[in-house]
Specification:
18% strand, 213 residues, 4-stranded mixed β-sheet, alpha+beta, single chain, 5-stranded mixed β-sheet
Amino acid sequence: MGIIQSFVSSVRMEYALEIMGRNSFSIADVRKAFGIDPSEPQLTTLSNVPYTENTLKECKDTHVLVAVFPFSIVNMRELVLRETADMVFSPKFWYKSEPFALSLGETIWQLIRKAPVPQSYLKTLDEHENIFMSKDDIMPKARVLVYTIVGFYLAKGERMFENVYARCSDRDSFGVRLAVSGIGTDGIKVTNEFGNRRHRDLCLVPVRKHDSH
């Protein structure tokens, strides 16, 4: 049943990118931004997108479709510092030994909202989590947000979420919830300073659940 559902729900990559248009971060964009050379198993994994045609059409103006590769935040930071003089990452690197920053993740397609949820500012963590109950969205991993923000900037010159912080599903080694900023004047920031508190610049930038799950 699960295999059949996954097959029925999937859309071929080429058609998915056609639907999403410029609101996509393709394998070609990944190569341009990060210099990653995908393996054959990775290309096979990404050949189908785990969203239905209806979901993609529903999200084509509100989300970006991102080809996510196994690439840690520490890897991204090292690459950017080596390849560009731009202030892409904040000089504050408190998280260099944190498990969330060393995690490689997996090869996967993600639909990420391209603008914050308007009603999500000035909300506590509990209030943010309640927004997602019985809905199609989840909080993103910090790694996926950083990957998307940095990737779009390097490949397309676009600054996503420049003046806000997006709450993430990850916690630091002390159990404090994380948030990620866009690339502002001081570069992208990964912070634990908000914790469970509300803040005027703290919002939600959700990821759409896969239709095949």
